[in-house]
Structure to design on (955 residues):
């Protein structure tokens, strides 16, 4: 019989836990925290994506999200009885139940807001003269027989319509109800009769029996067809200042009265409106939602609906457009979040591996003794796995429970898988490290310091493999942007991995270079610190990898967040034009600038006049003409950085007004001049100008107004000749373009002309807008100061509006949390690295103090010993972060996450390195390393040399 296999006994696990309770508690806390964060991340992503989807669908409104199933009226060749029978509510209800079965998962129908019935597809004009006629055209009325009217409206006056007798196409009169909004607009009262045209017979009399108030006016029942709730004043596209208009309203018949529509000219159609349950739609079901909607519109769902209703049935909905809009927005945001998630996951995994490595190094002698006494490698790994699992598994479960409580919304399966991955990593770290370190039985452990270990061929192959992967990921991201595969998400991580491996190759060379100059210095601290730094174990690749990955991810994430903030600031500035502005359709009061200047937070006020309908050369195209004070407006352009120009280039000097001849169009601002042959043109311009207008030909100041123009205006009208600009009040000015600028604060559009306001006619020169500069402008006080006639926009409010999307703001918050988590675990990795060498360093300091080393020298020794690796990580992390951002920036556009989807960006926002995001994490690494070394030296000094050098200590 063979020897029975050794089993892991419970006393071993219990003994190990009792021997090191502090280490067990620390491991449990670490695993619980990591599992909680790992479980919370996918649920947080699900939560903000679901919120973004719900917001997109709410903004689309039920008239676009409802699935509209419609069928034409029954065949005209059928007998009248069968045609009428097809429109009765009993038949429509049976068909409604069958149509509900055509909707496939995950699209669910909200039955409470769904409806069916018959409605006219044509809204004919009615002859009743008592209905309002704004421009003389008769009102148009739509008829609808809708199910569930009593459940979705309350009767304010009268009663609900009824059909006590069977109704068909020959019925002369039916009852109807109207909503309160329709009754008010069309002057309808209880008892009013509307006559609907009916071909070949007398008009159908529709008697109003009740006025209703919708219970949920914005629900799908009333909002799928808004006309049923609210009438519309239709404006016809007729020329002239007062186009023709007519009212369009709806009358709600009893469902039993639907066959009466067959005798009218409304061309009735049957319908079944299916309102989707928006609360049951989730972003992670998007890949199934869109095919389900497509199957309804033109797939198997449509075939089943036709089989249940009519061969001519059609299904329409704009739900797929709303889903596609959300999908485009999410596809632009998700890759950026995945970059932060990949970096943070890498750092957390490294910390967990370092924890196992630290435990294995601390127990190196114990494990070597077990191997020497005959313990098999599998048995040793099993013992280590058992004692780690008994700590990590409950801690992981506790962390998962915390994640489910902290983030209550979202899927459970991804959270469980993430927490399980953390737990398995924590369980496997110590057994794997122990098994690898003790593959062979040795009496003494070989040296593994960086100065002596030569990289193996396997390590070289592994590094080259990672290099190829990183290069492929970066090339993919640069070529295809963030729409590439998941390899692009780990591109910054792979760049950090390669940098860590390269720096570890260069680290011994740098130490050898510094050891020579350090040996020539007075004192042994410098030389000894470098020697100690060179004795760092080769397994230090993990802490360096954690630091570089965290620094790269932090720099990348900080630059993303800084770029998002910059893009929003820029977009708000381009929209408002200043820190705040007040716009009025008419000239502002004379004291408006003074009142605005007294508002708290306002430093300067720049009044401008804007004529949006100014027409150069009496043409059809309008160009906004902005009249400004050159000095104040020039200062504003300098402050905002939008189209900066010197004030004197916009102001006419005395030399520009010859006073005797209107020959010269310009002397100092251009290269071309008008010649004597152009006297006739100058005379025409002078005749068109109003008397008393400054800077116009015909008086003693004949020069045209210098103007700053946009590139499009300059290309259309040229910069070498003056041209006439006709203002809204009929007056005219002559301008000449002297400068071209892409943008200007007063106008956000691509076309503009800017002139000196003093050169405009008196009415056109009065300010219509105020542009304000200030740090924190009080918006409410500004609105009160300028009055209710002016529209006030504040840059801070505009910027805040860009961040109100749940999808974008949620992604930004998750990104920030991921970067902060990665930074925290990187600091923990640094602490674990320093803690690993702490016992040996304490013993060394104790020995050196017995030989006369002072406490100050002890502090310097520990600080100098920790500085090389800290500086290596800080400098390498800064350089790696900068390199990763520069390499990946061409493929990343921050506009999607910075601005709402409805906002049309004026320019793309590309990623660029942020100085503070590069330097602050690196400085934090150096500060933590120095602080820990100082604290360790102080603590070692308090314990004393006798405690550190007690007998039997193997350190």
């Amino acid at each position: 019989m063979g020897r029975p296999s050794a089993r892991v006994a419970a006393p071993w696990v219990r003994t190990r836990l009792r021997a090191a309770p502090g280490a067990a508690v620390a491991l449990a806390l670490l695993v619980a925290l990591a599992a909680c964060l790992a479980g919370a991340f996918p649920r947080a992503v699900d939560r903000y994506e679901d919120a973004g989807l719900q917001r997109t669908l709410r903004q689309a409104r039920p008239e676009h999200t409802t699935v509209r199933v419609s069928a034409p009226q029954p065949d005209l060749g059928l007998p009248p009885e069968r045609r009428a029978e097809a429109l009765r509510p009993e038949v429509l209800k049976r068909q409604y139940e069958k149509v509900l079965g055509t909707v496939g998962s995950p699209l669910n129908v909200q039955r409470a807001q769904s409806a069916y019935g018959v409605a006219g597809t044509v809204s004919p004009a009615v002859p009743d003269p008592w209905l309002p006629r704004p421009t003389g055209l008769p009102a148009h009325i739509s008829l609808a027989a809708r199910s569930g009217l009593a459940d979705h409206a309350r009767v304010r006056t009268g009663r609900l319509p009824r059909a006590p007798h069977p109704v068909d196409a020959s019925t002369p009169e039916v009852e109807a109800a109207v909503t309160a909004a329709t009754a008010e607009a069309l002057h309808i009262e209880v008892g009013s009769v509307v006559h609907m045209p009916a071909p070949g017979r007398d008009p159908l009399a529709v008697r109003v029996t009740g006025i209703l108030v919708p219970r949920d006016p914005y629900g799908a029942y009333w909002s799928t067809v808004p006309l049923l709730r609210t009438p519309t004043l239709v404006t016809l596209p007729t020329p002239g200042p007062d186009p023709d208009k007519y009212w369009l309203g709806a009358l709600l018949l009893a469902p039993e009265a639907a066959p009466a529509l067959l005798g009218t000219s409304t061309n009735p159609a049957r319908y079944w409106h299916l309102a989707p349950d928006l609360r049951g739609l989730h972003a992670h079901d998007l890949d199934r939602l869109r095919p389900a909607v497509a199957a309804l519109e033109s797939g198997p769902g449509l075939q089943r609906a036709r089989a249940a209703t009519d061969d001519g049935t059609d299904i329409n909905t704009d739900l797929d457009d709303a889903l596609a809009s959300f999908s485009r927005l999410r596809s632009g945001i998700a890759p950026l979040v995945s970059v932060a998630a990949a970096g943070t996951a890498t750092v957390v995994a490294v910390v967990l591996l370092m924890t196992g490595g630290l435990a294995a190094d601390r127990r190196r002698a114990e494990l070597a003794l077990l191997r020497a006494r005959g313990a098999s490698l599998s048995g040793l790994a099993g013992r280590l796995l058992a004692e780690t699992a008994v700590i990590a598994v409950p801690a992981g479960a506790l962390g998962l429970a915390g994640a489910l409580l902290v983030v209550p919304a979202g899927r459970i399966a991804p959270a469980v898988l993430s927490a399980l991955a953390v737990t398995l990593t924590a369980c496997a770290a110590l057994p794997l490290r122990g098994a690898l370190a003790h593959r062979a039985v040795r009496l003494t452990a070989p040296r593994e310091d960086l100065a002596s270990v030569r990289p193996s061929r396997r390590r070289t192959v592994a590094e080259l493999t990672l290099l190829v992967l990183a290069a492929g990921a970066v090339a993919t991201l640069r070529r295809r942007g963030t729409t590439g595969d998941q390899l692009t998400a780990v591109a910054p991580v792979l760049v950090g991995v390669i940098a860590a491996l390269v720096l570890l190759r260069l680290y011994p060379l740098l130490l050898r270079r510094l050891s020579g100059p350090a040996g020539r210095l007075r004192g042994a601290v410098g030389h000894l610190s470098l020697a100690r730094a060179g004795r760092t174990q080769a397994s230090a690749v993990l802490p360096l990898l954690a630091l570089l990955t965290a620094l790269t991810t932090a720099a990348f994430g900080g630059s993303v967040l800084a770029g998002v903030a910059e893009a929003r600031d820029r977009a708000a500035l381009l929209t408002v034009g200043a820190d705040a502005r007040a716009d009025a359709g008419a000239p502002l009061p004379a004291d408006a600038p003074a009142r605005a200047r007294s508002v708290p937070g306002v430093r300067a006020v720049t009044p401008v006049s804007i004529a949006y309908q100014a027409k150069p050369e009496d043409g059809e195209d309008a160009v906004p003409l902005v009249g400004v004070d050159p000095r104040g407006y020039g200062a504003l352009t300098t402050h905002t950085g939008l189209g900066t120009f010197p004030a004197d280039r916009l102001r006419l000097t005395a030399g520009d007004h010859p006073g005797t001849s209107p020959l010269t169009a310009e002397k100092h601002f251009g290269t071309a001049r008008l010649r004597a042959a152009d006297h006739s043109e100058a005379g025409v311009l002078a005749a068109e100008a109003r008397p008393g207008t400054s800077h116009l030909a015909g008086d003693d100041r004949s020069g045209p107004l210098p103007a700053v123009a946009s590139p499009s205006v300059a290309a259309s009208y040229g910069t070498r000749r003056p041209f006439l600009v006709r203002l809204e009040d009929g007056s005219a000015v002559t301008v000449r373009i002297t400068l071209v600028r892409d943008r200007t604060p007063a106008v956000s559009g691509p076309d503009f002309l800017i002139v000196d306001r003093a050169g405009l006619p008196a009415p056109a020169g009065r300010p219509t807008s105020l542009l304000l500069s200030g740090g924190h402008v009080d918006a409410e006080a500004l609105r009160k100061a300028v009055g209710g006639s002016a529209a006030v926009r504040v840059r801070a409010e505009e910027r805040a509006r860009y961040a109100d999307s749940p999808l974008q703001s949620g992604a930004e918050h998750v990104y920030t949390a991921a970067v902060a988590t990665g930074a925290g675990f990187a600091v923990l990795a640094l602490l674990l690295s320093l803690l690993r060498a702490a016992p040996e360093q304490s013993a060394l300091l104790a020995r050196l103090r017995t030989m006369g080393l002072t406490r100050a020298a002890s502090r310097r020794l520990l600080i100098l010993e920790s500085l090389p690796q800290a500086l290596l990580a800080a400098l390498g992390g800064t350089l790696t972060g900068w390199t990763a951002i520069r390499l990946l920036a061409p493929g990343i556009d921050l506009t999607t996450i910075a601005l709402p989807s409805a906002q049309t960006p004026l320019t793309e926002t590309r990623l660029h390195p942020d100085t503070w995001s590069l330097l602050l994490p690196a400085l934090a690494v150096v500060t933590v390393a120095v602080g820990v070394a100082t604290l360790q030296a102080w603590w070692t000094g308090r314990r004393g040399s006798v405690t550190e050098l007690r007998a039997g200590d193997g350190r």
Q: What stands out?
A: The first helix runs from residue 10 to 19. Residues 125 and 140 are 4 Å apart (CA to CA).
